[in-house]
Amino acid sequence: ETEVAKDPMKAYALSGSVHPQSLVSASLQREESHKGLFVDRGVGSPRVVKSVSASTFATDMKLTESKNAMPAAAGAVAAAAVADHMLGPKEDRHLAIVLVGLPARGKTFTAAKLTRYLRWLGHDTKHFNVGKYRRLKFGTNQTADFFRADNPEGIEARNEVAALAMEDMISWMQEGGQVGIFDATNSSRQRRNMLMKMAEGK
């Protein structure tokens, strides 16, 4: 006598042969049968199980609404309005992001991703890579001595290209740019102080 399973997935397991197409259709049937049991609160949010009773679910929703009197969209608009009032319109605000870190730690990768994301959000963003300035000015065949901390000529040359990149970033911001990402190691306090002084009052 063959056992009859109500669940299609169990039936496939009992038969001993499972076909991928059958599994897909069974999972779709199960999903259809559970439609309306979950609340999707958006991308990245977990699906919340609805209450069994409609009245209980309505009560839960009212409690949630009372806790969150201001919806997320309205909150974002209000926050933007407060920022505009305190800091001025978005077009008049400028942000310089100066990266700090040892070589080959992902600064340029992070800068490229951040530039792409901020542009997607609608902010005029530009990536200033000091390494490109250095290669254009001094070539690509620099020895390790060029980067030594006890090489005054190398330090002066590196600070020179860093200053060029910073000047370009400041000029770009003065022409309407909003977010500048300054990509260099900037591992010495002397270099960071130099950049801070260049940016003061700009």
Automatic annotation (TrEMBL):
GO cellular component terms, A-Z: cytosol
Keyword terms of this UniProt record: ATP-binding, Nucleotide-binding
One GO molecular-function entry: 6-phosphofructo-2-kinase activity
Keyword NADP tagged: no
Record Gene3D superfamilies: P-loop containing nucleotide triphosphate hydrolases (3.40.50.300)
GO biological process: fructose 2,6-bisphosphate metabolic process; fructose metabolic process
Domain 6-phosphofructo-2-kinase, residue spans: 88-200
Coiled-coil region list: none
Record PANTHER family: 6-PHOSPHOFRUCTO 2-KINASE_FRUCTOSE 2,6-BISPHOSPHATASE LONG FORM, 6-PHOSPHOFRUCTO-2-KINASE/FRUCTOSE-2,6-BISPHOSPHATASE
UniProt-recorded name of the protein: 6-phosphofructo-2-kinase domain-containing protein
Organism: Opuntia streptacantha (Prickly pear cactus)
